[in-house]
Write a structure and sequence with these properties.
By secondary structure, the chain is an alpha/beta fold. The chain folds into 3 domains: about 60 residues, no CATH class; about 190 residues, Vaccinia Virus protein VP39 (Rossmann fold, 3-Layer(aba) Sandwich), CATH 3.40.50.150; about 110 residues, Tetratricopeptide repeat domain (Serine Threonine Protein Phosphatase 5, Tetratricopeptide repeat, Alpha Horseshoe), CATH 1.25.40. About 50% of the residues lie in helices and about 10% in strands. The strands form 2 sheets. Strands 6-2-1-7-8-10-9 form a 7-stranded mixed β-sheet, sandwiched between helices. A 3-stranded antiparallel β-sheet has the order 3-5-4. Helix 6 links the parallel strand 1 and strand 2. It starts with a helix and ends with a helix. S-adenosylmethionine binds next to loops.
């Protein structure tokens, strides 16, 4: 045990109580480094003196937290979330013609709020038709945000066309956001762990609460979501980052949609009665399906009826031939993977599973194959096995050396999100 652990434990406790930020023992080294730096800067020699300062002077505790809270952000940080918002959500609200209110709840230096303003603009909302309330605990960040001035690294995710349309490049290479965007945004300080939040119920249609829950303890997350459920309108939308999720005890209030690499949580108008996954209906054996009326041989040939699916043996042979041509195990794995996907399209779950297994056996980096396998197992009602596979995928994805093949257009973040979504609780 480290010499100063008692002091660190007390600091962690104070920060959690006042700001909801969670520092379990495995994150104490961050606090230890920060505290040592803070003490050096302020010429504090004793840990007891430092503790006294934090206990007695809330502004010192705030300064310590502010100095050490990660503020990392960028424009369109998770691009698919914004694309989904622009393509599927905003047009619906626009068609309804009602005033739209969006909350960027931990906006940091405002990149998230301006990104939302750009999305509103692109979806043809005027500042008379929509507003963004942008809040953060740290007022200094909001002062910076109001200036709308950003170093190029914040714009990494901004497509060139949008850069040209909504930013002006300065002589020193930095960017100034278009002043018109400010008309959508209302800046305000707010501490997410001071309840109740200063908004009446059903205040917002959309809430962005990205990259903040990760710093909170389970009980704070629960309370933050409870408040979100209060201030969001029924059927309103909540955006979390891919590494954050709705805890199991609150899932009945939410419907989570994963589409186009985006993850969106929609507040149910009435909580779901039963959240237990229902077992997938068993695939009916072939002879139980009603055969279509006999149509004649010519019709059958023209319509490829009964559908001709190569036997597993033939398909595996084809895969092996393909692999042998290139002599690499990875090609063989890909062949099996393709076979599995083809079978999947035909609803041949067992066969797809068999091929996916082979793909995995041949190359353990085929995480995407495993992900599909886990999906099939879920469909088959084999929950335990599916969970085991999702856990395996998660483990693989989290390995820094994992060389993830993106065969199906899924990126690593999305795959992580899918696993986490399926491994709730
Ligand atoms: C990592 S940034 C996230 C920025 C942005 N949402 C994004 O996804 O890019 C986290 C922000 O949360 C703010 N924050 C931390 N604790 C908070 C609290 N209790 N209430 C409000 N904001 C808080 C920090 O000041 C910081 O700006």
């Amino acid at each position: 045990m480290h010499q100063h652990d008692k002091a660190i434990a007390e600091i962690a406790e104070m920060i959690q109580q006042k700001y909801g930020l969670y520092y379990p023992p495995y994150r104490w080294s961050i606090l230890r480094t920060a505290a040592t730096r803070f003490m050096e800067q302020h010429k504090i020699e004793e840990w007891d003196a430092f503790l006294y300062l934090l206990r007695q002077y809330p502004q010192e505790l705030k300064a310590f937290v502010d100095a050490n809270m990660p503020h990392e952000t960028k424009f369109f940080r998770i691009l698919p979330q914004f694309t989904y918002l622009e393509q599927h959500i905003l047009p619906r609200y626009k068609a309804e013609g009602k005033y739209l209110r969006i909350w960027s709840a931990a906006t940091a230096n405002g990149a998230e709020a301006y990104s939302l303003a750009i999305s509103l603009c692109r979806a043809s909302f005027t500042p008379r038709e929509a507003a963004i309330v942008a809040t953060d605990m740290k007022s200094q960040l909001l002062t910076q945000a109001k200036q709308g001035h950003y170093a190029p690294r914040y714009l990494e995710n901004v497509p060139e066309t949008l850069r040209k349309e909504f930013f002006t490049r300065q002589a020193d290479g930095s960017f100034q956001v278009l002043p018109e965007l400010s008309a959508y945004i209302h800046w305000q300080t707010n501490n997410l762990v001071q309840w109740p939040w200063p908004w009446p119920e059903h205040s917002f249609d959309i809430v962005f609460l990205e990259h903040i829950l990760i710093y909170f303890s389970a009980s704070t997350i629960n309370k933050v979501l409870q408040e979100t459920e209060r201030i969001l309108k029924p059927n309103g939308y909540l955006f979390l980052s891919y590494s954050e999720r709705i805890p199991e005890n609150r899932q009945r209030y939410w419907q989570t949609v994963i589409a186009d690499n985006a993850i969106v949580h929609q507040l149910r108008a009435t909580p779901a009665e039963d959240q237990l996954p229902k077992p997938a209906p068993k695939a009916q054996p072939r002879h139980h399906r009603r055969a279509p009326r006999y149509q004649g041989l010519q019709w059958q040939r023209q319509n490829n009826y009964p559908p001709r699916i190569a036997s597993p043996k033939t398909r595996v042979a084809a895969a092996n031939t393909m692999a042998r041509k290139s002599h690499t195990p990875i090609a063989e794995a890909i062949a099996y993977y393709q076979e599995g996907k083809a079978a999947l399209q035909q609803q041949q779950l067992e066969k797809a599973l068999h091929a996916m297994d082979k793909a995995l056996y041949i190359n353990d980096q085929m995480v995407e194959a495993a992900l599909i396998k886990a999906g099939i197992l879920t469909q088959q009602g084999q929950r335990q096995e599916a969970q085991r596979t999702y856990r395996w995928v998660l483990e693989m994805l989290q390995k820094p050396e994992a060389n993830i093949l993106s065969l199906d257009g899924l990126n690593k973040e999305t795959m992580l999100a899918i696993c986490q979504h399926n491994l709730r609780g």
